[in-house]
Each structure stands twice: as C-alpha cells, then as structure tokens.
Amino acid sequence: MAVVFVMLALVPRVVCTNPLAECAINDPLPVLHQYYHSGDLIIAGILSQIFIFSNAITFEKYPSEELNDELFHFSASWTYLSSMELLSTHGKFIPNYKCDICNNLVAVIGGPNSYTCLQMATVLCIYKIPQLAYGSAPTTKNKNKAGFIHRMFPSEDHQYRGILQLLLHFAWTWIGVIYQSEDNTENFIETVLPVFSKSGICVHFVERFPKQTLSSDIIEMVGEAYKTLAVVVESTANVVFLYGEIQTMMTLRMMSEYAENEGIPLKNKAKVWIMTAQMDFTSFPLQREMDMDFLHGAISFAVHSEELWGFQTFLQNRNPIAEKEDGFIREFWEQAFQCSFPDTSGEKAFEDICTGGEELSTLPRSVFETQMTAHSYSVYNVVYAVAHALNAMHSSQFKHRAIANGGRQQLLNQQPWQLHSFLRSVSFNNSVGEKVSFNSKGELVTGYDIITWVTFPNKSFLRVKVGKVEPVDPPYDGFIVDEDAFVWPSRFNQAQPLSLCNDYCPTGYSRSKKEGKPFCCYDCLPCPEGKISNQKDMDDCVQCPEDQYPNNKQDLCIPKVLSFLSYEDPLGTSLAMFALFFSSITTWVLGTFIKHQDTPIVKANNRNLTYTLLSSLLLSFLCVFLFIRRPEKVTCSLRQPAFGIIFSLAVSCVLAKTIIVVLAFMATKPGSTMRKWVGNKLGALIVLSCSLIQVTICTLWLATTPPFPDLDMHSVKAEIVVECNKGSVLMYYCVLGFMGFLAVISFTVAFLARKLPDSFNEAKFIAFSMLVFCSVWLSFVPSYLSTKGKYMVAVEIFSILTSGVGLLSCIFFPKCYIIVVRPDLNKKEHLMKINK
Predict the structure, then answer these.
(1) Which of 440-454, 725-739, 756-770 has the lowest mean pLDDT?
(2) Which long-range contacts (CB under 8 A, 24 or more apart) does 491-497 make?
(3) 204 and 172 in contact (C-beta within 8 Å)?
(4) What pLDDT score does 33 carry?
(5) Of all helices (H) and strands (E), which one includes residue 463?
(6) What is the arithmetic mean of pLDDT over 692-711?
(7) Sign (positive or negative) of CA dihedral 486, 487, 493, 499
(8) Which conformational region is residue 390 in: left (phi greater than 0), alpha (psi within -120 to 50 degrees), or beta?
(9) Which residues are CB-neighbours of 241 under 8 A, at least 6 positions away?
(10) What is the overall mean pLDDT for the chain?
(11) What is the Cα–Cα distance from 780 to 799, expressed in whole angstroms?
(12) What is the Cα–Cα distance from 424 to 426, expressed in whole angstroms?
C-alpha cells in the first residue's frame, strides 16, 4: 500500500448506489468507468450499474490538518461520520435526511480491517444496507450486524490449515506468536493455537503488539513494544507467526526501526515472519525511508489474485489534475512524489511543484505497488459482485418495472435489504476467467496464495508466489509449495531455517520428554540394544526383525549370518584335529595293551575292563565329530545321548576297576569272604548296570522330548545360531548329573584306596584322573552357560576332549611307560621281589 496515504484504509472505501437512470439494464457489465489504485486498493465504477465515489467529500468539508491525525489512526468517530454522510444528501450533512433520490444507497464496500467494518455496520445496519468487506472477515456476536455483512474473504479455516501445513512441511515445531490487540483476537487464541498444539507445534511465546493510538502517542506505543521485541530477539524460535490486520505492518516496521536505534540485534537474529492474509504492506509517511531488511524472506498468505488485463495501462493514464471528483488522488500524489500542487491551500508541505505528469512506475514499491495486490483484486471482484446482484434483482420476475422516458426501463422503489439474497447467490466469471461465488456461510469461495518477500537496498520489495492453498475440505489439504522458490533471511545463508526447541535427535537416538518443558523440547537417548532409529527425531526406537541386527550406529538393520561350528571354521578345524590326534593315541594305547596282554601289568588290572575303558575313550574322542557340522535331525538326536552313554560307560569302567582293586586287597586277608566277588563278573555287572541306567535316561529323553535342530535368533547379536535344541533341559542335566554321580563315587573310592600296598594298585592314578575329570565337568557348567552360539558347542567339545585326555593320561600313560620303555619292570619276579 502507498506509504503516504494510510487513511485510505480507514473508512468505507466505495459506496455503490443504484443504477443511473440513463443506463441500459440488460447490459450489466460494460467497460469500467473509473479506477482508483493506491497500493492495495482499486476503486472502480461500472458505468451501467454502479456509481462509485469515495469519502473524498470529507476533505471538501474539513481541513486536512484537522483530519489527518484522526484518520491516520483509524478513528471510529470518523468512520461513523462517513457512514452517516452516505445516508445524507450529497454535500449536506443532515442525518437521516436525503433529498437526492437519484442516488439511493444500495450497498457499501468497506475494509480493509475488521473493526472498521463493524464500526461502519453500527450505522448502516440500522438501514439494512448490504456491506461487503474485502479485507479481514469481521466477527461479531450481534446477529443483526452479522446478517448484513458479506465477506469478500475466503474461509479463515483454510488459511489456518494452510499455515499449519506450512509449519509441518518445513518441520517448524517451535514458533513464536505475536498478535495485535483487536476484538477478533480472542477467537484466534482460543481455537487456532490449540489445533496447532495437537498437530505437534509448540508455541514458545505469545506476545501482543500494542494497540495503535494517536500520532502523539507513537513513541509511547513503540516503547511499550520493547518487551515484546526483547522476547522475540531472545527466543530460540526462528519462526514467528504474526496474527494481525493491515495496520499491524506499521507497528512491525516501527518496532524494527526501534530495534536498530536501541542496538537490539534484530538483524543478527532475523526471524522468518509468517503473516496472515489480513495483513498487507502499509506504512506511515514517516516510515518511507525506514529499512525493510526485516521483511526479506518473510512468508505471507494472501487471498488468491490475478493480474487484470489493462490495469497497467490504466495506471499510466492517471492524472491528478484531470480527476476533479476524486478527492484522494491529489493528496496521494503529493505524498507519494513529495511535491505540492500550485493551487494547494495553506502552507505547502513540499517545495517541489507537482505537474501531474509524474509516473507511478517510478515510485518504489514501498510507496506504491503497480502490480495487482490481493486487496485490490478483492475490491475489483466485489464491485462486479454487486453489479451482478443488482442485475439479478432487476431481472427477477418479482421486480416492479415501468416504462418511461421514451421506452427506457427504470427501477422503482428498490430497497437495500432486497439485495441480500442476490448477493448470497451471485456467481460469475470475472475478466480473467476466474469464478466468483460465495459458500453457505457467505464467504468467498477461493484459495490463498503463499508469498515470499524479497527486499532490495533501494527500499523496494518483490512478492513472489511460492505456493497456494486450495479451497478444499479435510481430509484433503490443498497445500502446494515450491521449495526451490523460497527466499530465506540472509542470516541463514539461503539455507532452509530450522525452528526447533532443540536440535533433531540423530539416527540411532530417540526422543525423551523433558520434565516441565513443552512437548517439543526433549532429550535424545541412544536406542537400547537390539533397536534402531533410521530417521531423525523418532519418538521411539524400533526393533529389528529377528533375522537382522542393528549396526554400530543403531540406524540400520543388517541381515544376520548363519552361525554353527563347522570344519571351515578355524576353531572347528582345531578341535577336529585334536579329536583325531587323541583318537590315534587311544588307538595306539589300546593296540599296545592288546599286544602285551599277557604281561603282568596288563593282566593285573583286569584286561577286559581296560579294553572297554580304552574303547569308550576312543568313542568319546570320535563323538566330537557329531558336534562339528551343521545340526540336523539325526545328529541332534545322537549328540548328547551318545556323549552321555559313552562317558557313563567309561566312568563305570573306572568305578569297576577301583572297586575290584579294593576287593582284591580285602580278599588277600586270611579268612576273607570277599574272594568270591573278585573277578570279571563283578566288573561286567557294574559296567552293565551303570550303563543301563544312563541308556534308560537317554531312551526316555529321546522318546519324550528329543533334541532337534533350531535357530537361535537372540543369543548372538549378529548371528543366527543354528543349534541343537535340547528339547528337555531337565533330561540333559539328568544325563550330566548321573555321569557326575558316577565320577564322584569313583573318585571317592579311588581316593580311599590310593595307599593300598600293591605294586599293581592303580587306585592312586584313578583318583588323580577322576579329580581331573570332576574338575573339568564342574567348570564346564558355568563356562557352558556363560557362552553363546557356536562357542557353547566348542566348550562342550573341549570338556569332552580334556576329560578323556585326563583319564587316558593319568591311568594309562604310566603303564605304557613301563610296557614300552621299561619292560624290565613288567616281570613277575620283579613285582614279587618288590612285594616282599
């Protein structure tokens, strides 16, 4: 809007009277008779149907010096006065008296702020005159007033939904709100902000602009805004939602200038201003030279508009000297070009003389915009809407018509209230082909343009359309933006600003609410083990699928690999080689004993039990190969039972050997009855009975809950462990328990018989071997339970090999030494000599 003539926005702009008598009725929209544009305003008259004049009559009756101070500040008294003048005879202010019947008032176009419309309605609603508001949509609880106000303004719900979509689109969840203290603000605070909050938008502060007062109080007004300005500057919110009307821009510019003068770092902490469609660029004359950088990168919503054909040509042809009936244009011209007309009464405001030939295109946009603005477009449409409504009312079959003046038609006895229903139902296409119509609430059916502001050092600016909000109802949002077209404040180096209470939680972290803070403020906690967050600012981490695991940063799930102890694994290869080696040693020992079976040292220790023990040790080493491969149904069924039975056989052989040694010593005493128990039958009975018990346990295990191949997804982070599920852990520990029971008994008996006086007494070797055996399997239990995956199998194999080697080395290596290295000691004479 023009920087010099704010008063144009204060009182009803356009008065629409009934058609001129000489105009043709059947042609409602001939050429435009008159345009008047002042930044955001067109005042247009349609020759055939509408005669339009502004409140310039006020300037004819009252000195401008007395008027400016009031009009500059939106005085209600002058609005009431202008409204009353519309109802009086032209040029004679006599309330409720009118004698020029040729100019009956039928509609008033007013704006651009809500309270001006309401003040206007206070007078005009008494006469039921239709009022069309082209700016802010006035809200009133007075049904009498509301019924006569038609809004050339789309639904504000669409605008607020568009603003919300804009905030969510750029993830601006931490904003500030400033509002102008006006009558319609209460509805905004109570209804709109809670909707924002439910959608995830936090409001850091809600501050109020001071209400505009008389010019003498401007400094005081700006001073009151200091606290608001301090809150804005200190806030961490980079986006500020500005809710106001057309005059709010003046206050905002004044605050920006005040900040510079007071040294407040507003430029260094520039904000992204989001402004509603009710606002537009407006200024006091004294703000003409003020800096506009604070608007660079601002975003505003505006009622959808298009450039009208022929509008630029019309502006170029404006001449304030030729315009006799337009009381505003001369005042505007002097202020815009800072000159005075020669015939200006009183003291000249400017030294330069106005010629009337000055070109509007040379003015910076901060003084005068030559492009069609949203408010101007609305006024253009509302003039045509009234014209169409008048035509529709005239064409109705219920109109009383009369033929006069040589066949010309003339409307008789039209009343203003009759126009209301026709205004509600009016629908037409304007000159640029856009449809103009109203919804059931009397709101204009159109959308909003999203504008970004670009400022220049010469105090000029440019509005760039970067998106739009279509007039659609939920669940559709009708929100469209072009991100690349946005211009951001210089502070952000043309990068999209962030407006968050705190930085985004990076991937691998989740949000955690801060106590006592708004929900947009949160801490970032690392994802727990097994979970990831692959997006920023996730409320919670998500669990990876069972066959995947998180990477080190916990922002990606990686497929797990199958894991089992195999021959390709170095650990599996090493254990297999040890098993083969010890199997070979055992085979050699067994062969040595068979080869020297008739020697005293072999015969003295029960050859059958020795062969059985060596065979069981050989099988125990070989059963290791059941563990080193991918588990299958057969191998799983054989692993643990085979291991349990073979070791039970080996331990029962050791137990039998120990018992026979004890009985043999006792049988050597005179009169002993133990001789009948000494022999191969006792050893066979012990071995068979102990082995049978273990076989029974294993058979019961296989018959009820046998082991089976299974996949363990959870034990190892990065692996799917292919294992043999034991089926019944109780049965598994029963097998180990029985084997341990035999080992403990064998160790106890051997320990007690270790000092018996016999050269061939192997009880001391058995005692030491069973000590090794028990130690290995006692340490096996915690080691087995503390390992995972294939290492559990490796621990069991290691225990099998270690316990087998313990029995083999402790019991048989001393005998092999005598048999192989010292055969001279393996003679009956030598042994008898030692016994003596």
Answers:
(1) 756-770
(2) 491/267, 491/268, 491/269, 491/270, 492/238, 492/270, 492/297, 496/170, 497/170, 497/172, 497/238, 497/239, 497/272
(3) no
(4) 28
(5) strand 461-469
(6) 92
(7) negative
(8) alpha
(9) 163, 175, 176, 177, 178, 274
(10) 78
(11) 7
(12) 6
* Residue entry with tokens 């071995």: 687
Give the confidence band of 273 by pLDDT, cuts at 50, 70, 90.
Answer: very high
* Predicted pLDDT at 404: 45
Q: CA nearest 205: which of 171, 230, 168?
A: 230
For 292-354, the DSSP string reads -GGGTT-EEEEE---PPTTHHHHHHT--TTT-SS-TTHHHHHHHHHT-B-TT--SS-S-SSBP
Q: Are 10 and 75 in contact (CB under 8 A)?
A: yes
Q: Which two tokens stand for residue 672?
A: 């002993």
List of domains in the chain: 6-154+308-398+430-435 (3.40.50), 156-305+447-492 (3.40.50.2300), 509-557 (no CATH), 570-835 (1.20.1070.10)
Grouping H, G, I as helix, E, B as strand and the rest as coil, residue 720 is: strand
Residue 390 amino acid letter: L
Phi-psi region of 406 (alpha: psi -120 to 50; beta: other; left: phi over 0): left
DSSP alpha helix (H) spans, 34-91: 57-61, 64-71, 76-86
Using DSSP, state whether 141 is helix, strand or coil: coil
Structure tokens at 360: 């509007």
Among 794, 751, 795, which Cα is nearest to 769's? 751
pLDDT tens string 647-683: 999 999 888 888 877 776 665 555 555 555 555 677 7
Element of type H or E holding 132 = strand 131-133
Q: Which residues pair with 17 in a beta bridge?
A: 105
Tokens matching residue 585 = 């040693």
Which has more pLDDT, 348 or 334? Answer: 334
Q: Tell me how long the chain is.
A: 836
> Of the ranges 321-325, 610-614, 668-672, 714-718, which one carries the lowest mean pLDDT score?
668-672
Q: What is the 3-state secondary structure (H, E, C) of 542-599?
A: EECCCCEEECCCCCCEEECEEECCCCCCHHHHHHHHHHHHHHHHHHHHHHHHHHCCCC
Query: Which residues lie closer than 8 Å to 570 by C-beta, 6 or more apart?
Result: none
pTM metric for this prediction: 0.67
φ and ψ at residue 306, rounded to 5 degrees: -135, 155
SS3 (DSSP) at 174 = strand
Among 350-354, 409-413, 429-433, 485-489, which stretch is predicted with the lowest mean pLDDT? 409-413
Closest Cα to residue 773, out of 746, 797, 749? 746
CA dihedral 383, 389, 394, 397 (to 10 degrees): 170
Distances (CA, A) of 690 to 117, 626, 770: 108, 24, 17
Give me the mean pLDDT over the 672-697 stretch.
77
